[in-house]
Amino acid sequence: MPEKILHCYHCNSSFNFEFAHAGFGDEIFFYCDQCGIVATVDTYSEEMSKGRFYEKYILGRKYNTHRKQDLAIFEENIKKMKIAISKGLQPCSCGGKFTIDAIPRCPVCNKELEWDKVVDEIDSNSDSVTPRYFKKILKKGWHDIYYFVFNGRQIRNNWKK
Fold first, then answer.
1. Which of 20, 54, 71, 120 is deepest in the core (most CB within 10 A)?
2. DSSP three-state, residue 71
3. Does pTM top 0.85 for this prediction?
4. In degrees to the nearest 10, what's the CA dihedral of 41, 39, 114, 17?
């Protein structure tokens, strides 16, 4: 993961950020609703197989993702699957929960980082192939295909025991 610097627009502190493509890494990610740390789940983990998440929500259905109606159904099933997965994760050490709609927070002041307020700085510090890469491709902001790790704060495969 490339490591770069980002500045918090709330407290003006600086911190490292890294990013990774969840699809290429075969991961699903969630942010904590209290501290913003990212949790990633390996899509090939034993818990994913045991939970049969893909079978329940995605596989066995025929989608033509070029049709708006099929694409909407597919995206809704992905959302349902992610909600089910998040319920199988341990709570964060801060007491928060990993959810599909929580967003990252500044690791210094703990305030939420709004995508529209940081994406230009992320773009300018990411050494992407094209200028303004993230602003162009990540239409859903924090909840698109890339996940972000701030000051190395990441948890992997934190399934409930």
1. 20
2. helix
3. yes
4. -100
Contacts 24+ apart (CB under 8 A), 148-151: 148/17, 148/18, 148/19, 148/38, 148/104, 148/122, 149/1, 149/17, 149/18, 149/19, 149/20, 149/38, 150/6, 150/15, 150/16, 150/17, 150/36, 150/104, 150/106, 150/107, 151/15, 151/16, 151/107
Does the pLDDT value for residue 2 go beyond 60? Answer: no
Q: What is the pLDDT of residues 92-139, one digit of tens each?
A: 999 999 999 999 999 999 999 999 999 999 888 877 666 678 888 888
Closest CA to 1 of 124, 152, 106: 152
Helix H or strand E segment including 116:
helix 115-124
Average pLDDT, the chain: 90
Amino acid at 32: C
Name the 3-class secondary structure at 74.
helix
85 in Cβ contact with 53 (< 8 Å): yes
